[in-house]
Amino acid sequence: MINIVLFGKPGAGKGTQAEFLKEKYNLIHISTGDVFRYNIKNETVLGKEAKTYIDRGDLVPDSLTIKMLQDEVEKNPEVNGFLFDGFPRTIAQAEALDAFLNSKNWEVTATIALEADDEILVQRLLERGKTSGRPDDQDEEKIRNRYQEYNEKTAPLIEYYSAQQKFHAVNGIGSIAEITERLSDVIEKL
């Protein structure tokens, strides 16, 4: 079983690369955003609860996010592994993920960060915003705010996973094929 945490700032290419990696290594791709949207759209108990926080403009508590992710993992008991995209985002979430995986005698195999210069990523998102319809991709101030939040909350995960010798940085600039090759090189050596 191989369980990979894929992270990087918004616009780093996580979603694009996850599509290639899940096919190549036969992994289940779990995107936190997709899981939230599914639960809210289908008005699951967890989705309704999450929506109350979102409607108030509050962050959904870690405990609720983790429960949604656990449910998603439980739907796929016979798999080669998981590709976690957008989770964990904090040390508390990483610890909860470790505890959950350990309860199944699994573990995070590796954490791979797609790294790129902020200025390049801002331009990527503004370009994506022209066609995505996502308002958070069309406002440079909001984009930079997302990066600030990433730096404060998610960047500490580098230390967390480095201490476990599970952190790998990959250059996220180049063609999609070049970046996929770099990610594959890391995965093949695990």
Automatic annotation (TrEMBL):
Record's InterPro entries? Adenylat/UMP-CMP_kin, Adenylat_kinase_CS, P-loop_NTPase
Q: Which GO terms describe its molecular function?
A: AMP kinase activity; ATP binding
> Reaction catalysed?
AMP + ATP = 2 ADP
Reading the lineage from the top rank, the first entry is Bacteria
Pathway annotation: Purine metabolism; AMP biosynthesis via salvage pathway; AMP from ADP: step 1/1
- Write out the residues that bind AMP: 32, 37, 58-60, 86-89, 93, 134, 146
- Which keywords appear in this protein's UniProt record, sorted alphabetically? ATP-binding, Cytoplasm, Kinase, Nucleotide biosynthesis, Nucleotide-binding, Transferase
Cleaved signal peptide residues: none
Q: Which GO terms describe its cellular component?
A: cytoplasm
| EC code | 2.7.4.3
Compartment annotation: Cytoplasm
Where does this protein chiefly localize? cytoplasm
Task: Detail which positions bind ATP.
Answer: 11-16, 128, 174
- Coiled-coil positions are none
- The segment annotated NMP runs over 31-60
State the PROSITE patterns in the record. ADENYLATE_KINASE (PS00113)
Question: One Pfam family this chain carries?
Answer: ADK
UniProt note: domains: Consists of three domains, a large central CORE domain and two small peripheral domains, NMPbind and LID, which undergo movements during catalysis. The LID domain closes over the site of phosphoryl transfer upon ATP binding. Assembling and dissambling the active center during each catalytic cycle provides an effective means to prevent ATP hydrolysis.
Give the record's family classification. Answer: Belongs to the adenylate kinase family.
What is the role of the protein in this entry?
Catalyzes the reversible transfer of the terminal phosphate group between ATP and AMP. Plays an important role in cellular energy homeostasis and in adenine nucleotide metabolism.
The UniProt subunit note reads as follows:
Monomer.
Q: What is this protein called?
A: Adenylate kinase
Q: Which organism is it from?
A: Flavobacterium supellecticarium
